[in-house]
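Residues determine shape. Take a concrete instance:
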Amino acid sequence: MPQRSHMADRDSCPLLPTADVFIRPCDISDVKKRGGPNAYLAALTCAQSLWLQALPAQALLQLNHAMSHDFGEKHLPWPMPYQALVWIMTRRHEEGFLGNPVRHFQHLASRMSGHNKNLRIARAWVCFHLAERVLPSEEFPRDQRQIEKEELKIPDTATLFQELMNIISADEIKLIKQLIGEIH
């Protein structure tokens, strides 16, 4: 069970649910196994808690978990967390290890397996493109070795949007296009 504790002295992400307790990924594992809207909300809340604990890389991983769910046209209590992802990455100079989100999303998209595979691949590529737009390439490069060794073809955004049209809702596509347009 999560413990009440003092969170780090930093602003919470306004694009994620409030978290007034420390939550670790293991605290929500049972909820995540069951899936559904409760697992989605738990992953978003855990991401907020991890952000407040100055663990931005782990917060991004929880956003990945949230995006692995397919709710079709159902209304979600929180939108897909693309904007929260960008918000966290733009605060890369704050306390905590961010890792290399560009490389992370490249690996995630190119090595995906399991349930909702195509949906999760497409969303990972969206996150990859968002990360490349937000983060300086000198500090956060692609994994060029993987690209060359595996002859990896990274989809451009136009190709990606074509693929997404068959997988996700029109509202989610609109949100992504708007966000990419704002960043580019």
Notes: The mean pLDDT is 88.
